Each structure stands twice: as structure tokens, then as C-alpha cells.
Amino acid sequence: MLILGAAVWPDGPSPTLRRRTAHAAMLWHQGAAPLIIPCGGIGQHPPSEAAAMADLLLADGVPENAIRLEDQSTTTLENIRNARALFDGRDVLIITDRYHARRAAMVARHFHLRPQLSCPDLPHIALRQHLRETLARPAYALRLRRIPRI
User: Fold this and answer.
1) What phi-psi label fits residue 12: left (phi over 0), alpha (psi between -120 and 50 degrees) or beta?
2) What would the DSSP string read from start to end of 97-136?
3) Of 3.40.50.620, 3.90.105.20, 3.40.50.300, 3.90.230.10, which CATH number belongs to 2-145?
């Protein structure tokens, strides 16, 4: 299971990071996957997104041996490409928000993965994020054409 990165704010994990991580912990406790890979490097504020998610997972009762950090990435593409080296097989459960899911699946398929996506409920409609994704998907599709498949 991959949790795609989200911001760490000056006062700690952003609501998006908390929401995705709580959703992943719930799924892990339900037996959805044996391993959780939080993804994300250091953004504007430390710690890395992956480390912040690991702290939340541990506080939610996920054992340390079920967590493997990918803490170098800064984009969705890097999240998935870097995490690919941390697990075997092609099937992957990706945790992200619904507005981001199509782009995440596109990137995963580029790297020969078979993604399933699980998205936490949003407390409100994220219009700004939907608009951002409308522009990001075609840009990512063009970018992926130049990136070798692993």
C-alpha cells in the first residue's frame, strides 16, 4: 500500500496528509495489505512527509515493521517511481484523494503496476484541487512519454 505525499505545515501534518494516513491505517487494520509505504520527502517544512505519516501510523497502532519509508520524492511521479523499488509484485493499493486518483493511476500504470485506488472521504468539495488536476493530467501524460518504464 502506498500513501501518496501531502504537505507538512509549520505546525505539523496538513489535513490532507492526516486524512490519507488515517485511511491507510484503517485499511491496514482491516488486512488490505501487509506493508504501508508512506511517500514524500521534505517540502517547505520538516520532517519529510513520509516520516510525518510514519509517526501517525505508529500512533494509530501500525507496527514499525509494517512501514517502509520512501522519503526522497517531491512529486506524484517520484512517489510512485521511488516506492516501486520498495516492494515486490505489480499489484499496488494507492491511497490518495479522489481528485488526484486518476493521475496517480496513470503514473502507476506507466511503471507497469496494476493500481487499485482507495480514497478517503473529503469533508468538502475540493474545487481548486479538481481544477489543478484537470491541468496536471495532460502535462503528466506528456512528461511520462519521456520517462523510461522501469
Assistant:
1) left
2) -HHHHHHHHHHHHHTT-EEEEE-PPPSS--HHHHHHHHHH
3) 3.40.50.620
Pairwise CA distance, residues 86 & 10, whole Å = 29
Sign of CA dihedral 137, 81, 115, 48: negative
Cβ-in-10-Å burial (0-12, 13-18, 19+) of 126 comes to: middle
Place of cell 481544477: 131
> Do residues 93 and 62 touch, judged by C-beta distance below 8 A?
no
pLDDT in tens, 87-123: 999 999 999 998 899 999 999 999 999 999 999 987 6
Write out the DSSP string of 5-25. Answer: ---EETTEE-HHHHHHHHHHH
Alpha carbon distance 74, 40 (integer Å): 6
Phi, psi at 60, each rounded to 5°: -90, 10
Cβ atoms of 75 and 36 within 8 Å: the answer is: no
Q: With beta carbons less than 8 A apart as the criterion, state whether 25 and 61 touch.
A: yes
